[in-house]
Design goal:
The protein is rod-shaped. The chain has helices spanning 4-22, 76-83, 171-176, 210-243, 257-264, 274-279, 302-311, 324-333, 344-359, and strands at residues 26-32, 44-48, 56-61, 67-73, 89-95, 103-110, 116-120, 129-135, 142-147, 166-169, 180-181, 194-199, 292-293, 298-299. With 361 residues, it is an alpha+beta fold. The strands form 3 sheets. An 8-stranded antiparallel sheet has the order 3-4-1-2-6-5-12-11. Strands 7-8-9-10 form a 4-stranded antiparallel sheet. Helices cover 32% and strands 20% of the residues. It folds into 2 domains: 19-205, no CATH class; 247-359, no CATH class. This is Protein kinase-like domain. Residues 1-19 form the signal peptide. The chain crosses the membrane at residues 212-236. It comes from Phytophthora cactorum.
Length: 361
């Protein structure tokens, strides 16, 4: 009972972690230049928390004439990174608080250095269709330039005097992943907020994300469950075999009496093998009983017993339930001729083979 308590606590911990990480479902919108390019790398990706997420794997045109697909995921950041494939990208995650703990939305931009089509940014102060140029300069910064025209020539909408402008993330910000205030020089941000920057060039310390941690923990739990089940199964089989009376004894073929007495006195073969000697029970600890000879109540002297064994009149027999391979090994181990007996290493090897290939079936 005590051994199961840590396992139960571990399962409870995993349940809490899983609930915390899968409690929020994010809508992941991927945007493309046209419907024909929906199988290619997206131009832009937006993640947000909807009241109800409805996934659509088929490329469609929405009410804003944006072309794309929608997915429902619990890990928006990894999904966005994977969606860009081998292409370079810049991702901005927008938060409502200075500790970057209250998620608002996130936008990913494909880095091409050319003018790319965005989408109708209803979450921004602009609330219109925008275009962008995303670059990752050699000095390690990330730069986003926003435009209102398809040729990326204008940064001001005709109905507004506010520029969409450009925003830049310093190298230190990208490498540290720190939470920084939004740059309100750009009209792309509607309210006060904070952001974390990511890019395909961002510094990676090799840490594990939440999904990987959960996977490792779950794998450990599965291993522990299999180990516990294996232990119970092993003891169950062992007890079952014991109840069936499956104990076996050795058989001595007829042979030379002198060699037999020498073996019993510990002079040759397995009896003086280092491995067997180390495991052998001291003689003063062994309790023996003499068996009556026939029904007369008389006992057989050791010399008489040995004489009958060598003459072939008395033989040790195995239980009928004993595997044939163990019977053969038993005969070999108690052979009168030392040359016919296996060494301790050979006997242990054969026992391991029998257990792994026959008794395990």
């Amino acid at each position: 009972m005590g051994g199961m308590l840590p396992l139960a606590l571990l399962l409870l911990l995993i349940t809490n972690i899983w609930s915390a990480t899968t409690g929020t479902t994010y809508a992941i919108d991927t945007f493309y230049t046209d419907l024909d390019s929906c199988s290619d790398t997206p131009n832009a990706i937006r993640a947000y928390t909807p009241d109800k997420c409805t996934a659509g794997t088929t490329c469609f045109t929405d009410g804003n004439n944006d072309n794309g697909t929608t997915a429902c995921k619990s890990d928006y950041l990894e999904t966005m990174k994977e969606s860009f494939g081998i292409s370079q990208y810049i991702i901005q995650v927008i938060y409502k608080d200075s500790s970057c703990s209250t998620f608002y939305y996130a936008v990913g931009y494909r880095v091409t250095g050319a003018c790319e089509l965005g989408y109708v940014a209803g979450e921004s102060g602009y609330e219109g269709l925008f275009y962008f140029i995303a670059t990752l300069p050699e000095e390690g910064t990330a730069k986003l330039e926003f435009f209102t025209t398809s040729d990326c020539s204008a940064i001001t909408d005709s109905s507004s005097t506010t520029d969409l402008g450009a925003v830049v993330a310093p190298k230190a910000t990208l490498e540290s992943g720190e939470c920084v205030p939004l740059d309100f020089n750009s009209y792309m941000y509607s309210t006060t907020g904070y952001t974390q920057w990511y890019s395909s060039n961002s510094y990676d310390d090799g840490g594990l994300n939440t999904g990987a941690i959960i996977g490792i923990v779950c794998g450990c739990v599965v291993f522990l469950l299999m180990l516990v089940a294996g232990i119970f199964y092993y003891y169950y089989r062992r007890r079952s075999k014991g109840k069936q009376g499956g104990q076996w004894t050795a058989t001595l073929p007829s042979g030379d009496l002198t060699s037999l007495e020498s073996a019993m006195s510990g002079q040759t073969g397995l009896w003086n093998d280092d491995v067997i000697t180390a495991k052998r029970i001291p003689r003063d600890k062994v309790k023996t009983k003499q068996r009556s000879l026939y029904t007369t109540g008389r006992t057989m002297a050791d010399a008489t017993l040995l004489q009958k064994i060598t003459a072939g009149e008395v033989r040790v027999e195995f239980s009928e339930s004993s595997p044939q391979s163990l019977v053969e090994l038993g005969y070999a181990c108690v052979a009168v001729d030392p040359a016919d007996r296996p060494t301790a290493a050979e006997a242990l090897y054969r026992i391991q083979i029998i257990i792994s290939q026959e008794l395990a079936e």
